[in-house]
Input
Amino acid sequence: MKKVALIQGNEACAQAAIYAGCRFFAGYPITPSSEIAEVLSRKLPEIGGTFIQMEDEIGAMAAVIGASLCGLKAMDATSGPGLSLKQELIGYACMAEIPCVLVNVMRGGPSTGMPTGPSQSDIMATRWGTHGDHATIAVAPASCQEIFSETVRAFNLAETYRLPVHILMDEIIAHMREKIVFPEEGELEVLNRAEPTVPPAAYKPFDASFGDVPPLAAMGSNYRYHVTGLNKAEDGFPTTKAALVDAEERRQLRKVDVAAVAKNEEYLLDDAEFVIVSFGVVSRSARFAINQLRNRGIRAGMLRPITLWPFPAQRVAEVAKNARAVIVPEMNLGQMIGEVERAVCGACPTRSILRVDGEPITPQQIIDEVEEVQHVL
Amino acid sequence: MSFDYEKYLRPGKLPHIWCPGCGHGIILKGLIRAIDKCRLAKNRTAIVSGIGCASRLPGYVDFNTVHTAHGRAAAFATGMKLADPELTVICVGGDGDGVAIGGNHFIHACRRNIDLTYIIMNNNIYGMTGGQFSPCTPTGAFASTTPYGNPDPVFDIARLAIGAGATFVARTTAYHALQIDKLITEGILHKGMAIIEVVDGCPTSYGRRNKFKSPSDMMTWLKDAAIPVEKTEGMSEKDLEGKIVTGILHRDETRPEYCEQYALLRERAQRKEG
Output
């Protein structure tokens, strides 16, 4: 019999991290993500893992990267203000190509914002918060069951691509309790980083002859190497040689296989005239709204990015071709709409529904907008 | 037979970036001699730094080396040590890196008494960025951002470490080359957080602005200002003004080490689980 439980989103995330092989968590208390730390402070030592509450958000990210360098799957969890503080080290993990997972339970902002309110205002901070060019992978679950599976996938993606991978949640789904069916061992795929097989003297931590994601040795194993946040050559040592810097920067950006990472849910999209693009908690209101609209004979459907970064621009462009309008409800003042507009590229009108008052976007707001658009167009 | 430093240096990585007259090379040699004395295996030793002149040291030595972000060496090292408690983890870095931008990680690593050895190469200045004042620049001294003299009071790194809970705290200078490896050796062998402050001169960014006409003047200052801790008995704060008190300043073998404490916590958690 499968194990079934009624649990909170944050707890599902913590349990899934253990399922995925996470054995190290460093964090700093912050609402609304603290339950992840609380659960892991109890569970990790029981299975031989390590939990540490660090002195600040930056230290937590640093400890996670350090533990991952020594071969452990490692995770940190935070909210917007913590994301702001961690940005430099997110860049470090991108540059030094060290896998790790960062959960961000979004609340309002800028600054301290509304700690107990839901938000989706960190979409762009996740993509572009750290300076410099870099690849970003972010997953955005919308239910407790999906928090579990997407957390496992986030670890797989981090290990596969040697990148920090973001799990973007919001206060509502993180604190919501739902039934979840725990997957059995082996039911969900669990991937580990590729380790080197070359003789230690021949090892280069960024050797592109092994592909765009070179194998990563654990420090303390038989492989000795150097890691830096400076632009580096394939041997890991800093370089300012133009050709080497250019090649490494481009490989780091190119290494994420956009098609392989992409994951969307498409709900009643085949014949949809009104396409709603939404994710996370908003997609739950959108689904309800779409059902209501369909009952009234209005053909609405939803494209729900589960992988939010890289953004599914190509799929948005495809569905926009047959749409009368693309509508983007989001709990911020207009972030995802920019990506959608860029993808739609004028193929059909686009509309925003924006909300930042700490209340969720309701199905009625979406219904009203679709009905209005229907009359205007 | 002379000591074989090359055994521990990475081929092709020299010359280093340090200016003529800088004492960082002396500290590097002291570190290598200490590692050799402790017979540390290269694969089982990690050297972790932040950003700055001193933090370039890891690139030259043949161990697991991590050149992290500015101020973050102790926090990275904490993650590494907890992930692999049998790994010898040594942090190196400068004064600004360690106790300004990295001050929070520094004091909390001391508080935890995690088994790291942290060598702070204190040259009283931000050298790499061109000589801005650091928390260790003497009050009244000149730096590129204190054109009217430094208005700030000074951090005493060793006292800070003792106050924060480090269980081995020592200080020497780049002039006292033989004491450097002696103290680092003791620090590595000590189970718990070991801070070794090595006061150094930066002729390029500090000396030129503060009446040290040549690097040898800076060395003479280190030599003359140093006073072994054993000789400070009965001396007042005023007597010690401008002095660099050297030697082992604090040692406490009674406080538990963090990784060992966490291992005990794990046992408790597993008993409860079972």
